[in-house]
Amino acid sequence: MIRSSPRGHFFLDLLLEKAAAWMQNIEKDQGAFDETVLEILGLEATARGDEGYDSECAQYVWPNAKGNHEIALYAMCWWRICQRLAGPFGARRSTFFHFADPRLVDINHVVGARGLNEPAVLHHFAGRSKDWDFMLETFGMARRNTGNCFKPSAKSPRLLPFV
Question: Cα separation of 129 and 39, whole Å?
Fold first, then answer.
């Protein structure tokens, strides 16, 4: 979640600039998001006097010469650089981000075969072919109400906006 603050706006500006300009990156905008996280961590490292981030993982954001995304190579690069910049998994530190430990809380549960049966801070419908009617029905929202996140629904009376 992104706080509505100068830092949050800075992050979104960097992310949205990439998302608008980068074509065919990993999962449409995932590569842009992941690279923005590494860039921010790199800026923090540089401010501490440490080595920053030189975009070495970006080479895996786009398809290779055969047209395939090398998601595993990108993920391994991301984890290695993130560890160097922010510390090991479960103990990452940043003045910009708070890294939630997924062993303690599911902050981004991908709705799949298990549906909404597992508690999570955020339930995420992933993939390119989303069934929008099912998603809206799942959360008790009529399509006519989807333009206003402040309007509560019968199933979600405390629906809050994402900021």
Answer: 30
pLDDT (tens digit, 0 to 9) for every residue of the chain, 163 residues total?
Answer: 678 899 999 999 999 999 888 888 777 778 899 999 999 999 999 999 999 999 999 999 988 899 888 899 999 999 999 999 999 998 999 999 988 888 888 887 887 777 778 788 877 777 666 677 777 877 777 777 666 555 555 555 444 444 3
Collapse the DSSP code of 109 into the 3-class scheme (helix H, G, I; strand E, B; otherwise coil) and give the result: strand
List, in order, residues 6 or more apart from 42 with CB less than 8 Å away.
52, 53, 54, 85
The number of beta carbons lying within 10 Å of the beta carbon of residue 114 is 9
Q: Domain coordinates of the chain in residue numbers?
A: 6-86
DSSP three-state, residue 124: strand
47, 39 contact by CB (below 8 A) = no
In 3D space, the residue among 76, 74, 75, 35 whose CA is nearest the CA of residue 54 turns out to be 35
